[in-house]
Prior knowledge:
The chain is α+β, with helices and mostly antiparallel strands and 406 residues long. The chain has helices at residues 4-10, 20-55, 63-90, 207-210, 223-226, 331-340, and strands spanning 145-151, 154-162, 173-178, 183-188, 213-218, 230-232, 235-238, 245-250, 255-259, 270-275, 279-282, 285-286, 308-316, 321-329, 343-351, 358-361, 374-376, 396-401. It contains six helices and 18 strands. The strands form three sheets. It has an eight-stranded antiparallel beta sheet, with helices on one face. Strands 4-18-5-16-17 form a five-stranded antiparallel beta sheet, with no helix packed on it.
Amino acid sequence: MKTSQEIKSTQPVRGEFVPRGRRLYKRRHPKIRKLILAIVVIGLASFTWSFGTALTAANQQSESLKAVEWVRGHGGGQLLRIAEDVWYTWHQPPKGGTPPKGAILDSASATSSPRTAHAGPPHLAPPKSVVPFVASPLPGEGVWQPEGRTIGGLHGLYVTTMRPDPVHTSLVAGLAWMDPKLLSFTLFAGGAEPGGAPWPNMGPINSSEAASLVAAFNSGFRMRDSRGGYYSNGRTASPLVNGQASFVIYSNGTANVVAWGRDQTMTPNVVSVRQNLSLIVDNGKVTSGVFSPNYQQWGATVGNSVLVWRSGVGVTSNGAIVYAAGPGLSVASLATLLQRAGAVRAMELDINSTWVDYFFFNPPNGGPASPANGTRLVYNMQRPPQRYFEGTARDFIGVFARPYKG
Length: 406
């Protein structure tokens, strides 16, 4: 063992020769520390700027939701998917029970009989009542009610509410039936989705659009999770994918739900195409894919069997567009709900309570639609009717009354 004197004697003194390797290490070591420090500072500054910008973005999202969206958009999608899966698995809706009073729409003004002869504009026959899933339905359950402004004395929108399955009987889902002969559809871009702003039609809804607005509802997943594309007014934000479920809007304002490339290709009369995953109803039947646990098939969110807020849209055999949404839905139960409402083809739209919403408007004396005369399709939808009258990050669908001069 070396003595303290021997150890001391090995230390270089001022002016003593030091081997080149040791001199280089001593000279470069502070530079390495400074470089690492600079990288850390730059990284923190970049994170602070990016995260801060996300939190202060001008839209209706809460700060917590903005934070979640930032994490999802910066490589944390898998982590969030696992967290969501665990959360919803442990917070599944209760079995049995009764909906709160008023959750099922009042049937006092409900109608399930065909319209009488009318000299107004061309229109479809109103929808027949939807057969409830429960053995003892509540008054008004599955019975369509006319809503929204009239066109030539006719309603182009009918809505109803019902329990979505015979097990979770305290839950309520909503259905909307829209007549494309009386109503037209427009795809609106949001502030963040699909990106590439400006677009000819962008939220929020302006005063001239509000003059004929009947309803508005959510679109699909964020484009990076939709496994599909976005096309509108001659521009492509994301390439369209053959075989994927597509909400198509035509130059005459009508709409369709198709498997792209099979039922519809790009033609001059196609104005907008919004794709999201694959069809959940096809040829009038619930597709087998809705039972697949493959997360890749159903996006970077919770899987198909976890019961959460979900929404979807379909087309009937006579061309009507039907929308469905509600809490405690699996992909299969959403598909079954749309099928029972008459859809021959249908697709899932967005999911989770933050993004699922459908609003209809009953302005007085034919005035403009506004948050004050807007109503949620389902009583406990999270967002208020002013959502699309303010800045919104996501794209959405607007439903408008067709002009008519009788």
